[in-house]
Amino acid sequence: MERVLVVDDDPDIVRLVTYNLTQSGFEAVAASTGRAALEIIQKRPPDLIILDLMLPDVDGMEVCRSLRAHEASTRIPIIMLTARSEEIDRVIGFELGADDYVMKPFSPRELVLRVKSVLRRSRSDQTGMLRIGRIQLYPERRQCFAGSELVPLTVKEFDLLYELMRARGNVLSRDALMDRVWGYHGEATSRTLDTHVRRLREKLGPDGACIETARGVGYRIAI
User: Fold this and answer.
1) CATH code for 3-127?
2) What's the pLDDT score for residue 185?
3) Rounded to the nearest 5°, which phi and psi values hold at 82?
4) What contacts 120, CB < 8 A, 6 or more positions away?
5) Do domains 3-127 and 131-221 have the same CATH topology?
């Protein structure tokens, strides 16, 4: 049975949401403050979190930021639940790592459907995840982590790392990489490829050392 943590200081909303989740086959637990939620998550991470933005102590944004900063909780799906309607709040929520956003007042049935959808997507992401050492790549979400740290990559940097990780230690020639990442449309040169590899290594920090140069041939990622 999948476990959902509902974090909201409104007891009526908590009762409504937990009741509908239980009726739909979930195990529902609740917390009324951000600190209480973090304690529950530390003891036993849930499968998904429904997180209110406005909490009496630590607000939802800060709770989300804290969860995404720790390896044990960085990939727990989060649905933001809030009465705020400003677009900037939704944007900030997504930038911090929220997976979905539901506005109050809401339909309990719709919220349960959102929970099921996010969990289904999360399971799919986990299945398709690539991992080498501390580097984890989520192709569906287009996200890269080095340990618990989210690594911001450009489209081409992500595609380049994806091809190297998918090769599982085999050397990819320069031509093969340029073909797969840029295509033969005159966009890429050897210098372009080298620049992207250099930037990728820099962004990955110490983990970037696993991207090795096969002199005269191309690149590989050590496993």
Assistant:
1) 3.40.50.2300
2) 45
3) -155, 155
4) none
5) no
Distance CA 34, CA 62 (A): 8
CATH architecture of 131-221: Orthogonal Bundle (1.10)
**Mean pLDDT across 91-97:** 69
Q: Write the single-letter amino acid at 121.
A: R
What residues does each domain of the chain span?
Answer: 3-127, 131-221
Strand pairing report for 211-214 and 218-221: antiparallel
State yes or no: pLDDT of 201 exceeds 60.
yes
Could you say which DSSP state residue 44 is in? S
Reported in sequence order, the residue ranges of the chain that DSSP labels E, i.e. its strands, are: 3-7, 27-31, 48-52, 78-82, 100-103, 130-132, 135-138, 143-146, 149-150, 172-173, 211-214, 218-221
Supply 157's token pair: 């940097």
Cα separation, 16 vs 3, in Å, equals 16
